[in-house]
Amino acid sequence: MAQESGFPAMVNDRLLRAARGEEVDQVPVWVMRQAGRYLPEFREVRAKHDFFTMCQTPSLSCQVTLQPLNRFPLDAAIIFSDILVIPQALGMEVEMRPGEGPVFPSPLHGPEDLSRLAPPGDACTKLQYVFDALTLTRKELKGKATLIGFSGAPWTIMAYMIEGKGSKTMSNAKGWLYKHAEASHRLLKIITEATIHYLVGQVKAGAQVLQVFESHAEHLGPQLFRDFALPYLKQICDQVKEQGEAAWPPRHSNDVLADSVSQRGVTMP
Ligand SMILES: Cc1c2[nH]c(c1CCC(=O)O)Cc1[nH]c(c(CCC(=O)O)c1C)Cc1[nH]c(c(CCC(=O)O)c1C)Cc1[nH]c(c(CCC(=O)O)c1C)C2
Fold first, then answer.
1. Pick from 9, 27, 37, 67: most CB atoms within 10 A?
2. Helix, strand, coil proportions of the chain in percent (round to 5)?
3. What CA–CA distance (Å, rounded) separates 63 from 112?
4. 30 lines ligand 1 (CB under 6 A)
């Protein structure tokens, strides 16, 4: 509540209202990757800065987050960042290579590599820049749109940490689930713990809606999804609701948080 009162009053709360199941005058609209390379003004900023430098510089992250809203009457702004800041905060190197996308120069090869990871409780201290970008953006939005924070879901993040880049099959990461089931659960627990701290921190910093992207759910059949994805998504939902409540007005809390977990992702107002 205290955090909420520090921000401008909402002028357009269409997305928040829809998320709570309340009536809206129009369907709220925002776009996947609404900040990005299709915008000349984004390319101009991007030409001068490395992708992760933009994420790590709150003024730049805020600037490109707001760019699409200056052009289109969107109902939400999604903070400019990437799901791969969690592996970075856990101590892994990630580069954004032009034309190639994200690349981990030293991905996880086997269970012994888990010892390379930083403790998940410490990871969030390295992500203060995301919290600062959210707080700045929420103020700059002046209540004209809802601010969305996000993270990757544990299986999706695990898949990148093992594959080291995008993959059509995720065969190495899937191989872990069969060959190293215990180590897979250990890794998923580390990512889950870091993600819970991270999402609660985002709410405290001013995020009003959270998206958890399970982008690589399609690589898991129903049983693997039930064993290696769903329990961690559920834990994130339960604990972020519980811990996020301290930073959230009561009427925005449990009753409006989504109860169901879909394969593509979870949206939690
Ligand atoms: C929500 C978000 C994401 N990335 C970016 C944003 C914020 C910007 C916005 O949506 O407006 C910036 C964001 N992230 C990226 C870009 C382009 C990079 C550039 O400008 O150089 C932008 C604008 C780079 C990126 N980052 C990622 C990829 C896919 C790699 C692969 O599997 O082959 C890529 C290409 C990982 C990533 N990143 C994200 C997901 C989940 C959503 C989805 O399923 O697409 C995933 C899987 C999420």
1. 67
2. 55, 10, 35
3. 41
4. no
**Beta bridge partners of residue 210, listed in sequence order:** 149, 268
Judge if the beta carbon of residue 46 lies within 6 A of ligand 1.
yes
Q: Which of 33, 142, 40, 126 is nearest to 81 (CA)?
A: 33
Q: Return d(Cα 225, Cα 216) in angstroms, integer.
A: 10
ipTM confidence: 0.93
- Please report the atom of ligand 1 found closest to the CA of residue 211: 1
Residue 236, Ramachandran bin (φ over 0: left; ψ between -120 and 50: alpha; else beta):
alpha
Q: What is the dihedral of CA 202, 53, 188, 246, to 10 degrees?
A: -10
Give pLDDT, residue 244.
78
Residue type, position 38, single letter: Y
**Of 44, 115, 35, nearest in space to 68 by CA:** 35
Per the CB < 8 A criterion, the answer to whether 49 and 59 are in contact is no
Residue ranges of domains in the chain, CATH in brackets: 14-263 (3.20.20.210)
Q: How many Å apart are CA 14 and CA 66, to the nearest integer?
A: 18
Which residue's CA is the nearest one to ligand 1's atom 2? 82
49-99 pLDDT tens trace: 999 999 999 999 999 999 999 999 999 999 999 999 999 999 999 999 988
The pairing of strands 76-78 and 146-152 is parallel
Q: Which residues are catalytically annotated?
A: 33, 37, 46, 82, 160
Residue nearest to atom 40 of ligand 1 (CA): 83
Please give the distance, rounded to the nearest whole angstrom, from the Cα atom of residue 13 to the centre of ligand 1.
26
Evaluate the CA torsion angle 54, 56, 62, 66 in order and state its sign.
Answer: positive
- Residue 268, judged by CB atoms within 10 A of its CB (0-12, 13-18, 19+), counts as buried
